[in-house]
Amino acid sequence: MFLSLLQSLFVNFSVLVTLSFVMSLTYRSWPPPRHWHLKALRLALTVVTAMALVMMGALDPSGLHVSLWLVPPAVMILRYGVGSGLIAGLPAALLPLILPASGPLGVEAAAALALMNLLLVSGLAHLFRWTLNMNDPHGSLQRHAWIAALIFLPTNLGLVLLPGGLDALQRTYLPGWAFSVLGFWAVASMITGRVALLQSTDTYREQAHRDALSGLPNRRQFELDLPFTAPGDALLLIDVDHFKLVNDRHGHPVGDQVLALIGGLLSDALRGRDRAYRYGGEEFAVILRRVQPGRIEEIAHRLRELVAATDFGEPLGQVTVSVGGAPFGLWSRTRTLWDADEALYRVKHGGRNGVQIFTFDPARPQRADGPPGGGLDPTPS
């Protein structure tokens, strides 16, 4: 009998791990999106898992179904709260009412015992929710898995109140408790491992698309955002004047401080829908979203004056920038990039510390010398 119980619990454990793996696949991005349908999907999967575990559990001679069905609701409580856990576990708790009775326990007593188990385990899981953080990248669920031993301690203790229940408790309590703790640890490891992987992927993605010096998105992110521009947007290219002299006279650390400070100035000065980039070297780019044509030059002057009015400290004092810009339109985005670069070229060769916005002329022939900086092919709007 004892060996049969262990075999049945092992099958239950295998089903729990398999269905929990399916659940873990619903975590696909980080930070996790707050869509209601994802929560509903996980809740539905938890209900199905708990009910499947009950139906596949071991049947004690007393009529008690011994399974790991309390593990999924406990995990749901840690993720979404006690209300979600109770909803997820209630169908499984009432399942004995429709399962065939084959022992003195009776279906009503079995259902009442299951409801008692659900309430006790839910209360303890809610109590320890602050300790077991499902979003902890270091896996607090694994580090504190000993708490699972406390969460599942009261399981089936209500048997002592039923006739002949003490014998059933002695037969089933220790194996059921041990497998519940093991199952909880396995599910916790799976979910926290998945969360850690998503967080690491998000961190690496962020590092790959962000300039570490200025804190701005880098050239790679600029090229990803460029295809999503539209007529009504505009591009500014900002070049630090005489930056080579800054590096030659004061050293690269001072030059790095200049770039970092300008990156912060640009980021703070723009609207939430606009975006600044470290385009390369001493050059920055700004994409302005839904900006009126007459305001492009106004914004460019404001950014130039902001940099010129900033004290960069000893030994520099003041630093100036040159700004060239162009609107996006029905022509290719690469042509807008060329136009902004040409406007910047004219400012730099006209004395620097100025602004020029290119006005698109549809009769002007396309340049044949390729995009500035290389690497961008003409892309139709």
Overview of the structural elements:
There is one protein chain. Helices cover 54% and strands 9% of the residues. The chain is an alpha+beta fold and 381 residues long. It has 2 domains: 2-208, Arp2/3 complex 21 kDa subunit ARPC3; 219-357, Alpha-Beta Plaits (2-Layer Sandwich), CATH 3.30.70. Strand 6, helix 13 and strand 7 (355-357) form a beta-alpha-beta unit. The longest helix is centred in the middle third of the chain and has 44 residues, at 165-208. It starts with a helix and ends in a 24-residue tail after the last strand. Mean pLDDT is 87; it is low at 367-381.
Question: What secondary-structure arrangement, pairings included, does this model have?
Answer:
Elements: H1 2-24, H2 36-55, E1 58-59, E2 65-66, H3 71-80, H4 82-94, H5 107-127, H6 140-143, H7 146-151, H8 165-208, H9 219-225, E3 234-240, H10 243-250, H11 252-269, E4 275-280, E5 283-288, H12 293-308, E6 321-327, H13 333-348, E7 355-357
Parallel strand pairs: 6-7
Antiparallel strand pairs: 1-2, 3-5, 3-6, 4-5
Helix pairs in contact: 1-2, 1-8, 2-3, 2-4, 3-4, 3-5, 3-8, 4-5, 10-11
